[in-house]
Amino acid sequence: MNVLITGGAGYLGTELIKQLSQNPEVNQIKVYDNLSRDNFAFFTGHKYANHEQITFIQGELLDSRKLNKALEDVDVVYHLAAKVATPYSTTDPHFFEQVNHWGTAELVYAVEESNVQHFIYCSSIGVYGSSTTPLDESVAPNPRTFYAISKLRGEEHVARLQSKMKTHIIRSGNIYGFSRSMRFDSVINKFVFESNFNNMITIHGDGKQKRAFVHVDYISDVFNRLLTADVPAGTYNLIERNLAVLDIVDVMKEINPTLEFIFINQHLKLRNIVASTDLKLAAHMELGEKQTFKEQMEDFHKKWAF
User: Signal peptide position in this chain (predicted)?
Assistant: First the structure.
């Protein structure tokens, strides 16, 4: 089958392509990305397995003509392209709307006119809003940021496809872990970088705020196997664990006992976003073995050049 990945040169896209390029079911991979984050690391380093099957198209989601051409002969679309939240999810609503809402709408329009048979959309746990108790897919979304609102509106467009093709909406936790296209605005990635090179991390708020997290290797593996897994169309959460910021710090102190940390605006109590780890998706496909968080952090610390 032939695959198109929007935002394929980004953080998750880079790791997903590593998986797809080794998947015997995949014949061609088209990477569609506007490179707005200057994510040129995707093009560097070791060659992907079967790299001859990968082609790159620089384009915008709102460029309907280029999208239509890119979708020729495509069987499966992974929609990863997005204006991401951290750390400005409550500013610049127009940008979030243009990319995450109307960009997704334009892609869905183009897919409706194509021969695509399977559409996979990477949404966010953030659509649920704030919560101190773990949420599952039965809970009605209540987004609190411009980012989350735009992702939910994108979901509404994608849901139109469910009557026409196999469609999966995956609400992902906060992604972390090493990649050559890694984002450093993600809290765990930022902490590990600071721990390794500064021996001091900066904590915003009181550190008690909790988030739902998923490792980049874990989500890319699940996305790869969604190609052939017998998973009914629908909306699914995908997280590995819920962690408070201070939980992350505790593990990092075990790995680096000399690590220091400083609080910024410690009086602030920031919101929680936690989700159930009893995943509905697990009833339909094998999700693979999980490493412990400490094991993941130990591996992460070993990835740096010095």
Answer: none
